[in-house]
Write a structure and sequence with these properties.
Number of domains: 2
Distance between the termini: 34 Å
Largest sheet: 5 strands, parallel
Helix content: 25-40%
CATH topology of the largest domain: Alpha/beta knot
CATH superfamily of the largest domain: SPOUT methyltransferase, trefoil knot domain
Order of helices and strands: EHHEEEHEHEHEHEEHH
CATH class of the largest domain: Alpha Beta
Number of strands: 9
Radius of gyration: 22 Å
Strand order of the largest sheet: 2-1-6-5-7
Shape: elongated
Strand content: 15-25%
């Protein structure tokens, strides 16, 4: 998978993309992440990428020209499955969405800032808008990093255990059951006996019951969606 990210702050991705699973995915050649400095595509001598809104009011708006130049350059080089704008009013990122995008080949992501981007970009260039929640961040970089992490980890071969992602929360519309490791007892707090029984059938039944219980307590909307 190739992911191209358009941003005015490429340095913000150094930490998230240079450690852990995303780093390994790149080292294995399973994910290729390219950062594009939007300021390189402006003709303004001060490398500005924003201007005042025609309607007035507080806040600056990211201009269409540098964005269009960058998008045009990238789309001339390859075909993209989606050109994504990270926006709080986009479609909410969930596990189903992450699963869908993990099957794509080429993705482009635009990170907004200030009061947003010129609406013509959204109307003419963007093919999908994605949100990580109903709140506003300083810019789209953190949201883009979350989206990329949620997608890349699902690419076959990225995780050491191929079945690990399949047991994640939300994969089967349930949250994950509780998990335990050594020691068996700590300060009198014990691991449930069923997990030490070796009876795989009973263990799986217990895990499923625990997932149902936790989902009902913490994410009841998932169970309602399953019934719809």
């Amino acid at each position: 998978m190739r992911i191209d990210i358009i941003t005015i702050f490429p340095e913000m991705f150094q930490g998230p993309f240079s450690e852990s699973i995303i780093k390994r995915a790149q080292q294995k050649g399973l994910a290729h992440i390219h950062l594009h400095q939007l300021r390189d595509y402006t003709t303004d001598k001060h490398r500005k990428t924003d201007d005042y809104a025609f309607s007035g009011g507080a806040g600056m708006v990211m201009m269409i020209e540098p964005i269009a130049r960058c998008v045009d350059k990238l789309t001339a080089e390859r075909k993209y499955d989606e050109i994504i704008y990270m926006s709080p009013d986009g479609d909410l990122l969930d596990q189903k969405v992450a699963n869908q995008y993990s099957l794509k080949g080429n993705l482009m992501i635009l990170c907004g800032h200030y009061k947003g981007i010129d609406e013509r970009v959204r109307e003419r260039l963007i093919t999908k808008e994605i949100s990580i929640g109903s709140y506003v961040l300083s810019g789209g970089e953190l949201a883009a990093a979350v989206f990329v992490d949620s997608v890349v980890r699902l690419i076959p071969g990225v995780l050491g255990d191929e079945t690990s992602a399949l047991s994640d929360s939300f994969q089967n519309n349930l949250v994950s059951p509780p998990v335990y490791t050594r020691p068996r007892a700590f300060r009198g707090w014990k691991v449930p006996d069923i997990l030490l029984s070796g009876n795989e059938k009973l263990i799986e039944e217990w895990k499923y019951e625990q997932s149902l219980k936790r989902t009902a307590e913490r994410k009841p909307g998932l169970l309602r969606n399953e019934d719809d």
